[in-house]
Specification:
The complex is a heterodimer of chains A (about 250) and B (about 325). With about 250 residues, chain A is mainly alpha-helical. Chain A is built from 5 helices and 6 strands. In chain A, about 60% of the residues lie in helices and about 5% in strands. Chain A has a two-stranded antiparallel ribbon with strand order 1-2. In chain A, strands 3-4 form a two-stranded antiparallel sheet. In chain A, strand 1 and strand 2 form a beta hairpin. The longest helix of chain A has about 70 residues. Chain A starts with 8 loop residues before the first strand and ends in a 6-residue tail after the last helix. The model of chain A has no long low-confidence stretch (mean pLDDT about 75). In chain B, about 40% of the residues lie in helices and about 25% in strands. In chain B, the strands form 3 sheets. Chain B has a 5-stranded mixed beta sheet. The model of chain B has no long low-confidence stretch (mean pLDDT about 90). Classes of the chains: A mainly alpha (about 250), B alpha/beta (about 325). Strand 5 of chain A pairs antiparallel with strand 5 of chain B.
Chain lengths: ~250, ~325
Amino acid sequence: MGIPYKKQFVKSDGRKLTRSGPRDMQARVSGGGNTPDESLVSILTDQIAELKAEMIALRSRSGDSTPAGFFSPEQVDDEIRRAVESAVAEAAIALKTGPNQDSDLLPLVKEYKSQILALQKGNDDLTRLHAVIVKENSTVKENIKKLEAELVDVIELRKQIAVLEQDLAGKKETIEILKSQPAIVGNEIVTDPDRPQMEQLFVDPLDKDSGKGMKPSISIETVTNDDGVNDKVDKLRGLLGKLPKK
Amino acid sequence: MKGVGLDIGTNMLVAATIGEDGSTVFKMQRDAFYRIIPKSEVNRNSIKKALDKRGFNFIEDTDGSFVVVGEEALETAIERNDVAKRPLRRGVISPKEKDSLPMLKILIENLLGKGDGDTNLIYSVPARPIDGVFDIVYHTEMMGSYLSQMGYRPQPINEAYAIGLSELLEEGLTGICISFGAGMVNTSVIHQGDSLVEFSTTRAGDFIDMSAGHALDISPSLVQLEKESGVDLTNHSTKIMEAVSVYYGSVIKYTLENIAFELIRRKKDLPIFREDVVLVVSGGLSLAKGFNAKIREVLAVTELPIKISEIRKAGDPMTAVANGCLLAAQL
């Protein structure tokens, strides 16, 4: 007695197993006349290929890349998102309404809430601290940059000073020579006061007897002013003493 | 007291002495002359008679010509549609104008008389110009030489400083003095009797006469006479006065702007004035009505490194320099 073979066995996933059992395989092997004709298979394969090509062409014309009866990846993604959002919303509602429905959960929820609040506060503090650190860090970076720039300047200045000192060493002698020469300040020539100087001489352009034969006939206007000149002289003496010499 | 003060101005010579009664005696003579050359002996006689009859001041030269001097020189020049000459140009004598020098000597001698060889004479000289090149030293030395020849012991002082000696006694000799003369404008910044900054500019009364005369095509001597008959800077009665007023404003602006420029340039020479200082204006130009107001107007838009408390006209703008020289001669 062999093992009874239940034809048209329906599997748990719904598939019907009508063939491919060991008996069928035996039957197919023994009754070779039942094998489909190869030429028929080939014709059908060709037809399927043609129909596939036709369908692809139709779909490309209509702009729909998703095969009929299937979801596109975007649609699947949207569906998943929607499902997750609704699940989150439901969970939130359940959390809100939970304590009213179940008084056993109340202390637990309270504890979680306080923990959440403490964590949020800690998070806020950390965020603030982070902002402060970032800010201080940028200030420190800026200061470092400035110092670096100044340092470059200082180095450059030192180089220049060194060059100038070298120049100066060579010019000291020239300065001494120039100091001994007269300088022009504004319109005046300034020389060493101890140096012997040319005497300034002025020659009268008039002849000695020039104007001697002239006969003036001139009367002069006189104005008298009694304004206490002696008091003024006394005041001036008090302020000046002597007339300053230029 | 024997000292004598002498203001040698481009337009006016003013001598100051102290009278026996203790009053100040000023003698003035306009610093101008006009030569008339007779065509014949007959003409010479008639010219002399005419000059005598009109009471003109004149000098008979050895070549037979007449030199009308003073105020009348301007009148004579205008009558002959000519310009009167001046021994000084821009405040100084020049060897290029040596023909004028004998007239200058005669005019001064007529003002002062002969000295006794022991009398101090303080005479005014301009400061070095900041906008022109001419020899102040030559002028100073030559005038000193002439005054010595006349029997005096001469010593020069700056014209603006002399104004300070005359007008700043109550302020302890601290302030700014500006002498608006005919040939030059002289400025002195005085601090406790020391003249710290002295300089002059060359746009002054003569510049106004020349510019207005040129603008209206008339003689500068006529402009000068009109100007000296009285200028009102706030009200112009004639076309000449209008032109004079315009150039007055231009000279005041130029002067104050240059003073500001020069004082800022020499800031390191200036002390820190603890209080605002008095600005004293003097000289013939300052006689114009509305002059102080014009100065105030220009000063309002000019930045001076020294703050001004008051703008004051000298007691007598025509004699302030000679008065300062006289006071200095007594020291």
